[in-house]
Write a structure and sequence with these properties.
The chain is α/β, with parallel strands linked by helices and about 150 residues long. The protein has 5 helices and 8 strands, in the order H-E-H-E-E-H-E-H-E-E-E-H-E. Strand 2 and strand 3 form a beta hairpin.
């Protein structure tokens, strides 16, 4: 969490670290707890293309991820979810607790997140959520591609 706080101190965009008494595990949990739209939730998944791990920050309004389309945007033939042990080894975080920022992986960002003044996503701590302007995400991540609906 210290890495995230260090990144945020240099961020010119508005953000808030929000503590909550229980983990926010699903889009529905986030919508209900923060009284927001599904699209404002910003889960982060770790994908694997060949031997490369890539973070995907996407809008919770997406009902299903199109892995072949994302692979095509990245110029890759095949894309899968990374295995939990790989994720923890590379990021230091368990799946389900991947932060939106501070993971040092190349990143794919869902353009739909840019439609909101704030998005809500992980910090690596299941009891803390990051509320941040989506405009900060390209500045705080190594964005290599964007996806759209």
């Amino acid at each position: 969490m210290r890495n995230i706080i260090n990144l945020l101190t240099s961020c010119p965009y508005d953000y808030e670290l929000i503590n909550h008494p229980y983990p926010i595990k699903t889009v529905t949990d986030g919508m209900n707890h923060f009284k927001i739209e599904a699209g404002q939730t910003a889960p982060t998944l770790i994908l694997k293309a060949d031997d490369t791990l890539i973070a995907l920050i996407f809008s919770g309004s997406q009902k299903q991820l199109d892995f072949p389309a994302i692979a095509s945007v990245l110029g890759r033939n095949h894309l899968t979810l990374a295995k939990p042990k790989e994720v923890e080894k590379v990021t230091g975080f368990n799946i389900g607790n991947i932060p939106m920022i501070g993971h040092s992986l190349p990143c794919v960002l869902d353009n739909r997140l840019l439609n909101y003044p704030f998005v809500f996503g992980g910090t690596g701590n299941p009891l803390v959520t990051l509320k941040i302007s989506p405009l900060a995400l390209p500045q705080l991540n190594n964005v290599v591609a964007y996806i759209t609906s």
